[in-house]
Amino acid sequence: MTQIRETSDRLCRLSRRSYQNPYEQVDWPEALDPEAEWFTSAECSSLYGTPAWDRLDEPGRRRLAFHEAAGFYSLNIHGEKLLMQGLSARLYRKDLADLTGYLHHMLDEENKHSVYFGGFCTRYARVYPSRQLSFGGTRPRDVEDLLFFTKTLIFEEIVDRHNQVQARDRRLHPLARFINDNHHREEARHLVFGREVVRDMWRSGASRWSEDVIADVRAEAAAFVTACWREYYNPDVYADAELGAPWALAETAWSAPAQRERRRAYSAGCLDFLTGAGVLTEEPSDAF
Fold first, then answer.
1. What is the tens place of the pLDDT at every residue in 93-129?
2. Is residue 233 part of a domain?
3. Facing residues of 38 across strands?
4. In whole angstroms, how far apart are CA 174 and each of 85, 112, 166, 181, 190?
5. CATH number, domain at 204?
6. H/E element holding 182?
7. Out of 47, 49, 67, 287, which could bridge 226 as a Cys pair, Cβ 3.0 to 4.6 Å?
């Protein structure tokens, strides 16, 4: 764990250096106009490149983008709630003592992210319910640890790809750009940490686990990639955007070639890492 300890110490220093108060960082506007400005990059929309997108006029596309912003932030609220539960459960465990310092920073930063995401949703839209399953399980502790950090990494890698695109998009309302940019800057440290931990835990575990356990870990990690992406195609978002037959629309959008390619492109960095580390042996075909 020597390298992880050094990485953890370095990331702790960076987190202390960039510490911020989320209650002082944003001047929340009194109101937002969903049809006047963009709140999600068009290219990040779950309908982009589909016939449904082509049928929308510009106000309709911006209205959809507004609700998809709330949907995206809601995914983060639910994902970070599970993440914080998992991190807090691993604090001060003797076998993870080298990680404790940075786990505290991750907890603090994930809570701050939820302040921003929740601030947008509760002021201007709503928090959409999650259909995602819990990270938890009943496997041996070392297997559960690897799966927890692997799922965390998958979730954060996909989110971060969206954050990067939107933080640079000058079409977006300044509030949306800030939320995405701020999240990306702090998640960049989490991703460094997550990759280090997953690589080390996999190397340690795979040398001891049976073929059945390894196959089970790989199957669950692959299924989680698909589950993460599925939540981006949210019928509740489509209904709030005044689009008809929202459940059918979600299935149609999921299968659209342009959306398959976007999912593959946005997942590439994460999947390259996981296959390079040995956690996966191939891309999850169900996701693409």
1. 999 998 999 999 999 999 999 999 999 999 999 999 9
2. yes
3. 172
4. 31, 19, 11, 10, 24
5. 1.10.620.20
6. helix 174-206
7. 287
Query: CA-CA distance, 35 to 53, in Å (whole number)?
Result: 15
Q: What would the two tokens of residue 101 be? A: 């310092």
pLDDT score for 5: 84
Placement of tokens 């949306």 in the chain = 176
- Residue 20 pLDDT level (bands cut at 50, 70, 90): confident
Q: The whole model's pTM is what?
A: 0.94
Domain presence at residue 277: yes
Q: Report if residue 31 sits inside a domain.
A: no
User: Which residues form the domain of 115?
Assistant: 2-14+53-287
Helices (H) and strands (E) in the chain, counts: 10, 0
Q: How far is CA 25 from CA 18, 113, 172, in A?
A: 13, 12, 18
Q: Residue 87: pLDDT above 80? A: yes
Calpha distance 73→164 (Å, rounded): 15
Overall residue count recorded for the chain in this entry: 288
- Structure token pair of residue 254: 């999921």
Q: Is 27 among the domain residues?
A: no
Number of domains in the chain: 1
**CB-count exposure of residue 276 (10 Å: 0-12, 13-18, 19+):** exposed
